[in-house]
Amino acid sequence: MIKLCLYGLAIPLMTAVAAAETHTIVVDETSITPDTLEVAPGDTIFFDSVCATTVSTGIPCLFDGLLSGTSYPPFCGDFQWDIPALPSIELPIFARGFSEDCNDNRTAVITIINGATITVPGDYATIGDAIAAAASGDRIQIAAGVYFEHDLLIDKTITLQGETNPDGSPGVKIDAQQQGRVLELVGGGPAPGEPGLSILDNLIITGGDVDGNGGGVFINNCSPIFRNCIIVENTCTGMGGGVHARRAAEGSPWINARPTFANSTIRDNQSVDGGGLYFHGDEFESGCNPELFNCLIIDNMASDGIGGVHHVGGGETLIENSIICGNYPGQYAGNIDVEDDSCTLSQCLDNDGDGIVDDCEGGDEDGILNVPTEYPTLPLAWLEVSDGDTIAIAAGNYLINEVDELRLEDMSVSIIGETNPDGTPAVILDALNFDNFFYMALLGQSTGEASIENIHFKRFGSGLGVGQPVGTVRNCIIEDCYGQTSGLYLYNFQGTVENCRISNSYGYAFFGGVGLFDDPNSPASNVTLIDCVIEGNSGTGPFGSGGYGGVYCDNGTSPDASLQFIGCTIRNNNGGTGGIKILPNWTVTLTDTAVCQNSTPEQIVGPWEDLGGNTVAQECPTECPGDFDGNGDVGVDDLLLLLGEYGNDCSTGCDSDLDGNGLVDVDDLLELLSYYGNDC
Hints:
The protein is mainly β and about 675 residues long. It has four helices and 69 strands. The protein has four domains: about 20-110, Immunoglobulin-like, CATH 2.60.40.420; about 115-345; about 370-615, Pectate Lyase C-like (3 Solenoid), CATH 2.160.20; about 635-680, no CATH class. The longest helix is centred in the C-terminal third of the chain and has 10 residues, at about 665-675.
């Protein structure tokens, strides 16, 4: 037997005067019997159901997040609902099989009786007066119309139910007219009490404007349920233009914060962060755990954060069968679990032309995703990019620490950073090595060319990977990475790596600098490295053995795989092979390249072809003779250093002995003067 309470949330039942009753509902292949049933909080409903069938609250195909149960094969036992402490309300229910569409014939209505019914404007002229007069468990029924009210406070468990239009849309609008917040819902307290399970049905909540958080709705330490509501055109100077929900109940474990939004729309709201919805959970107990089912979150804006949905702190937001699109900047961020049946891309679509958004797609209108002017962070742009797009990143230092990976497959994308006046990368992407497995990768087959240019990748865990596309990695720095593999990873790459520096990275289970891999079932690698520096990297194998520090060309390669080094330097790398390790089937050539001062005496292990101008030695040649102080130029300080050693016996070696004859003499002075003014 399966026992289910409120979906995803165990709530204590409200104390009732009458004894709890037990009811039975029969679900067969064509119907639900009885089709109407009255219950009270604390009652139990047993479902005698055919196998492989789910019964849920909501209208057919649109679960409202309240109650659900399933008769699972192979045992196909009954299941039960324990009615939680909800106020008076009708709960439509529907049944569906595992492998069929919703059957409109299998519907029923459960009515919870838990208090009086109050009408507006019949019993009270205003919604505010009706709320003040209501007791927990009561239902307030509101006739269709527009109600100009603001700062409505609900601190009890009631139903606020608007009349619907003939088409089922909300017929009641509560308009705050920018005079304050529309609704505030408050739960909790110093001792267990009101669970705060208010229900809000068929309402348009608009016109909220507040100096603070929650322009339309502010939810504090309670779990209201919004069904068939529209939260539109609200604003605030803080967080959550449409809705701000929070749990701040440290030391009070009985307090829950699990607001539910079902079959509702949150659109055209504005705030600093979380333009549509902003959720904040404390770190005590479970935090804040909102749930969204069958919702539209569209066209909301934030001035300094996320336009759609943002969850910070403890807990997690669950989003099912919803569309989040058209929000600026960004659709969602933080602790959010978006199920696969949801769409969370920037462009909203109305495929059937009925004026209602029914799908979404990624991509940017002009194909250029500007960071941070259009997308505040690279991960937000990453979510929206399409084949052929360019991500253009302005100069700055960007922390990348809220995602597990940045990975694109089967598309050609260019990632271009701004440069400094001297041409060096002005964009620093710093992942802080917060995750040893974090990486950026462009992988898979594509028809165009990928390009990564002018980016300084810093502390990127497992580094940068480029696999299979034709393209270019140009003017990049990859440094201080720490992961199983690190540095630069090239997989069946057909392109050029030019003017890049891969340095000070450590691969604790393989390679630290550059790794090349070639699957014989894909087009063969054809890689050219031009004017690149690969230095100071380390690699170890399992248990600290082996590993490759500089460059590793993997085995299992197609016979056509090739690698060319032109004008490169591979130095000061450490591992089982410090310099270059070449396994069979690779054709490797070197031109004007230095492989030197790596940890192993044999600087290159494996077959390679010398095309001239190369240095392969245990010691590296001096790159900038005369720059004795290492400041990057040959100047007056270097001249003074030489004059200070003039006439010295340097038979044991000294920097000022430029010609290596064992003396600092006039020949060294003349040689230094020939270098004078050089920019190193």
